[in-house]
């Protein structure tokens, strides 16, 4: 019994990270209809910036907001200098849909190369903000540690903040309207370009948070977040791509399934299982488990 | 303001799509307190005229004066700041938002701090102000009771009113109505006539409409477009009796 609960807790912690990355991808998809492969690159650059802060100051809690703001800034810059221009130059036909996606793929490679040039390819340690030794109850120590608790709590806070922004504020309204129909939103007086850039900035921040939360439990290298990008996509598709709640739940479904596979079957199966889950969802319910009309697109 | 002051004056507007002249030398004035109808057969260029004025198509030549000042042709998001609001053919609402949210979107120009402040969660007061403005606009079209319903749950005639409320919430001086009676039944059309006359007490209205009953009943003056050119203008009676207009609508045989 306790083994099941422990596995569940670890799954929730891992799933939280997937949720954050999934949220980043969904935010960009919703605001500009771009599948953003560069998200892993944006997140890794923000994480390295956080790494610089943490190695100079030895203070994780300073690195966290710096990485978050860098992530937001990088996201905004990518939109302004790449996506917006592409949207203007290639604005109709099949090219309009595919050009930005290929561009983000190129950008991912570019950012990884730049990160590699600056910091080299070797694996680095990112200081843990809190311990990764599991909580102890009496004589038993469980795998779930303060770092896992931090991950889960931070994710919940981020999700709540985004839900409030989307559901309760005029900015959220503008974001949703711009995603649905930029022309109508413009006519209604919404600054659509600015709104979309804010969507990209939010996404960049969410990806950066995922990066600085997961990296201390692992190593940092120019491509250490690539697997997270894949998991984020899987979670986003499970969640139906459109909704923030879907992104969060998709991450949890994936995280918990993977934890059980790792624990009860084999630790080498994690990666293939992610894809099996993805294909199963697409085959059975292509709109995602939480897609369609039932979940309000929050 | 003098009741005859000119709010909007367009001189020799031309728009081309590739080699095709969609509008050729169209001139039009709109004075304070007026309801002006823009009519013509299908494809005459009525919606193109609205699109040019709202920045959705680019203008080949022609000049624009607003409130007695020269004005460059606006971008879509400039419109509300210039005191112009537009409704769209086929409504153009956001189906998965509520009525109130749809109308609030039209009031974005009143959010003082802008989007950046909103992103930081500092806009609670503005939020409530926008809601109040939106409710007032809904009351003007008698739709306050449905404020919290989702738009995709409403019957079509009601969505037309919501679309007008969204235009009203920006407190326009000039209201562009694109086929407000399109797709409505006879009773709803009567109701819409009354609403348009009501709205005209607070802003000048430029109206594109196919229903001649609506046009004849609410418009002070008419412009008739055919093949992108103004073929007649003036009050309803003189336009109706103009042989060019009869020819354009019914074919030349009707005249001879």
- Give me the Rg of chain A, rounded: 19 Å
How much of the polypeptide of chain A forms β-strand, as a percent range? under 5%
Write out the strand line-up for the largest beta sheet of chain B, numbering strands in chain order: 6-7-8-3-9-10
Q: How would a textbook summarize the main sheet of chain B?
A: 6 strands, mixed
Give the uncertain stretches of chain B in residue-range form. none
Rounded mean pLDDT score of chain B: 82
Question: What strand line-up does the widest sheet of chain A have?
Answer: 1-2
Helical run tally of chain A: 11
Q: What is the H-and-E element order of chain B?
A: EEEHEEEHHHHEHEHEEHH
Radius of gyration of chain B: 19 Å
Structural class of chain B: alpha/beta
Structural class of chain A: mainly alpha
Helix content of chain A: over 70%
The greatest interface between two protein chains, and residues involved on each side, is: A-B, 30 and 34 residues
Main sheet: strands, sense, barrel of chain A: 2 strands, antiparallel
Distance between the termini of chain B: 46 Å
Coarse morphology of chain B? globular
Query: How many individual β-strands of chain B?
Result: 10
Assembly level: heterodimer
Mean pLDDT of chain A: 89
**Gap between N and C termini of chain A:** 35 Å
